[in-house]
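User: What would this chain look like folded?
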Amino acid sequence: MTVVLQVGNRLITQEEIIPLLAGYQMLPQLFQEILIDQAIASIDCTEEEKAAAQQQFCAKYDITSEENRQEWLRQQGMTQAQLDHLATRELRIEKYKQATWGPKVESYFLNRKGQLDKVIYSLIRVQDLGLAQELYFRVLEGEQSFAELARTYSQGQESQTDGLIGPVELSVPHPTLAKMLSISQPGQLLPPTRIGEWIVIVRLERFVPAQLDDSMRRRLLNESFNNWLQEQMKQLSFLPPNGSTATAIAP
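Assistant: Here's the prediction, encoded as structure tokens.
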């Protein structure tokens, strides 16, 4: 058996590496990083980009001298070539995202827009239908404000904000509530509706449409990348060699 690591007084052999990674639940992370490296293998950076990435990397890990660099490499068990590769990895991942999903981001945004639009709404939730109906008519007839009734009667955290919630994306509330809000007009008071264990009274205050700005573009690119990565992970086949340790191979 070949010893490849020493941790304290323990000598770790080559045959123990995979069982240890599996035992510490580190194999999925290893597989994921390998998949990413395979995907970005053809992505390159300019010399200027490499130099800038090196500077950012050294600043992040407080590598300020050649002595620091050698000590960091020793602690990480890495070579200089591996450090160079690691320093540009995030940039190459970003380039891969742009090259793969950048041209599709507008259509993806349109498909997702219904969930990305935000709403600000007022909510009262109680468990008694009779009370809900009474509160609804008090608001409808102007006897008391929504905020006052929510503060006094609502049985959720919204009672601490006078019933006001948001802005939140339409994917956040309960699907039934999200549908109600999506077809409402600002200022429209909706009658008591049962959602799970609650009877809710809702009023849409403001609709905030999602915009495909730089922040949203980055978010959707990251989302597309993560969705792809999850699908790739699902397609891995875990094969236990010699009936012991799980490894993964692509189908």
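The first helix runs from residue 14 to 23. If you want, I can go into more detail on any region.
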